[in-house]
Amino acid sequence: MAGIFVTFEGVEACGKSTQVKRLKRRLEAAGHEVIAVHEPGFTEIGSEIRHLLLHAKQGNAMQAVTELLLFEASRAQLVAEVIRPSLAKGHIVLSDRFYDSTTVYQGIARGLDSTFIRVINEFVVDECKPALTILLDIDIETSLIRQMRRVRPVGFPDRMERQPSEFFEKVRQGYLETARAEPGRIKVVDASRAEDRVEHEIWDHVDALLR
Predict the structure, then answer these.
(1) Which CATH number, 3.40.50.720, 3.40.50.300, 3.20.20.70, 2.70.98.10, labels domain 4-210?
(2) What DSSP assignment string belongs to 56-116?
């Protein structure tokens, strides 16, 4: 693909959305064509799936395998509709979550078969794999404090955010384990620091990739 694909990962409230916006502004100021997406959702189909996954009352009875397949369905639509065409045009694509989230949340934390998840991830994304993944790492206590500070339209956390602390500790450790397995692609950034410092370190990684 002619473009560059960068993904952001991490536990809840680690600052992914904020840093995606900051990086997008910085890249655009440098003259790059940039599109920022998020998972699950972004496309019309993905947005419907997102509602079912995170907000619909029917989701309370959702099985782990159902959850896995819905996330993959949203991703398949996003890749086909937005990511692949944008990369083909030579754009830089930034994604708030991608397949590492599935590897960690549904694989390591939910305990679903890692081999199957790897196969379905490969099937869904095909050649659209990130050249760089920024893992914004914070401890679970900080994550929970930040979540409580969020402004919400209805005042309630979504279905994934309602998981117990033990679940998110598995998620964090799963991310760090994944980063150790792929140090060339996944760069761990301490996201407990001030936003400007985090942005500067992210830019160093992205600038090295662009060079």
Answers:
(1) 3.40.50.300
(2) -GGGGG--HHHHHHHHHHHHHHHIIIIIHHHHHTT-EEEEES-HHHIIIIIIIIT---HHH
Query: What tokens were used for 15?
Result: 């600052």
pLDDT per residue as tens digits for the range 24-54: 999 999 999 999 999 999 999 999 999 999 9
Identify the segments of the chain with pLDDT beneath 50: 154
Question: Do residues 158 and 55 make contact, with C-beta atoms less than 8 angstroms apart?
Answer: yes
Q: Is the omega angle on the peptide bond into residue 40 within 30 degrees of 0, that is, cis?
A: yes
| pTM of the complete model | 0.94
- Is residue 36 helix, strand or coil? strand
CA dihedral of residues 72, 73, 75, 81 (deg, nearest 10): 160
